[in-house]
Amino acid sequence: MADQSGLRERKKAATKAALSGATLRLAMTKGGLDAVTADEIAAEVGVSTRTFHNYFPNKEAAFLHDFNEITGEFIAAVREYAAQRPIWDALRDACVGLRMDERFDIGQMQCREELIHASPELIKVQAGQFMELFAELLGIVAEATGRSTDDPYPRLVLGSALVTMKISNEDWVANPRGRTLGEAITHAFAQLEAGIARPLDGALAPDAPEPDA
Amino acid sequence: MADQSGLRERKKAATKAALSGATLRLAMTKGGLDAVTADEIAAEVGVSTRTFHNYFPNKEAAFLHDFNEITGEFIAAVREYAAQRPIWDALRDACVGLRMDERFDIGQMQCREELIHASPELIKVQAGQFMELFAELLGIVAEATGRSTDDPYPRLVLGSALVTMKISNEDWVANPRGRTLGEAITHAFAQLEAGIARPLDGALAPDAPEPDA
DNA sequence: GGAAAATTTGCGCCTGCTGCAAAATTTCTT
DNA sequence: AAGAAATTTTGCAGCAGGCGCAAATTTTCC
């Protein structure tokens, strides 16, 4: 029926992971996802092209598969924390709690970022996934703030949080500067909490040119 | 050579606008851009399908064409204002200065929003265009804040500003509530300037349920 | 061991997009 | 005004992506 026999489910999850992994690997070796075709990925895993498309609509989705896995955890965490603390803290803590830095190798994360930024199509698909995430979380945030989903405030909160999440992740991956990922995220969230118009501190920009006016 | 004879340039711009307009019109009448094909659009304008693809890579780009036109103005305005005032104010003023509400019919803007939200592909393409805009503006913002483009602060500023811009636009279109678009934008920017964690005021949510805890 | 359910696979088809070279149109020169 | 030059339009061929369908294969269950 549904998932009574966990074995079949596990096999499916395994091939899905294998396809996703092969996509990543091939994109790395060939220097860009655009240079990879669905046929190659399928061949790499030892499965037909048609089967690849049974699991993923396109190679971009395969590439971003584990991001989607994490998305589910993130939503669950936000929902849980939102009942216990202010929504801004809940969003921050859910983000920190993912502990991406412990889960992935930093070299691999850097590689992923480079590949994403090299492929316009991949950027688009990822942006689309963020929009989906926004839609899925908006109800939670609206309720937590006691506003309607039509109200701009919860939208601003959620939109800012997702942007902060993405930017602090990118920033830390590109330049850890001795911080943990959690610290980078916490600092970025604090910046928005204090008001975006003035920087919280200058310690983050050791190489910043001095303002020339 | 380049554009000495403005006539040819104007003709090209005219057909481009005609194609974009036809795309919009067809999407409206057929209740969704997904129900429209490139052939229909080309036929509507009296041009071959191949020519359509000379102007736009796909129908989504044609649909969002005038958004791109405005993007150029926006960048120019940010660059100009950034030399005169703090970057956050510059971004806000550039956004307000577009005066989208005077340029477009509000009914048409509502229609556009609905069509966008009904098409996942359109959402993706629009999100991709925002990423491009981000990349084009990042240098200006970094310089204005006296930071490097690697620094997370200018990224947070610009990301927050673009999110604020999009959300306040959507909000005003869906529910003007007697405000001008400029007022809605100004208020949203003020919210982020004051810190996102607490709402600036409750006047925006006349129908908000009272917080239940 | 055999029936039932589910997965994989091959095949054909359609759609969207691009390169290329010929045809049509516009602009420039004299 | 006529012809040359430049540019745009167009048709065609080709390719990759993606999907429906039904047969073949595998797995599960009794």
Distance between the termini of chain A: 70 Å
Helix content of chain A: over 70%
What's the multimeric state?
homodimer
Hey, roughly how much beta strand do the residues of chain A contain? under 5%
Given as residue ranges, the uncertain stretches of chain A (5+ residues, pLDDT < 50) are 1-5, 203-213
- Count of DSSP H/I helices of chain A: 11
Mean pLDDT score of chain A, rounded?
89
Order of helices and strands of chain A: HHHHHHHHHHH
What is the global morphology of chain A?
globular
Q: Give me the Rg of chain A, rounded.
A: 20 Å
Quick one: biggest sheet of chain A? none
Question: What does this protein structure show overall?
Answer:
The structure is a homodimer of 213-residue chains. With 213 residues, chain A is mostly helical. Chain A has eleven helices and no strands. The first copy, chain A, has helices at 6-29, 38-45, 49-55, 59-63, 65-82, 87-97, 100-103, 106-118, 120-145, 152-174, 181-193. The N and C termini of chain A lie far apart (70 Å). Chain A binds a DNA duplex (30 and 30 nucleotides) through residues 5, 7-8, 11-12, 37-39, 47-51, 53-54, 57-59.
Topology:
The structure is a homodimer of 213-residue chains.
Chain A: H1 6-29, H2 38-45, H3 49-55, H4 59-63, H5 65-82, H6 87-97, H7 100-103, H8 106-118, H9 120-145, H10 152-174, H11 181-193
Helix pairs in contact in A: 1-2, 2-3, 5-6, 5-9, 6-10, 6-11, 9-10, 10-11
The first copy, chain A, binds a DNA duplex (30 and 30 nucleotides) through helix 1 and helix 3.
How would you briefly describe this protein structure?
Two copies of one chain form a homodimer. In chain A, helix 2 crosses helix 3.
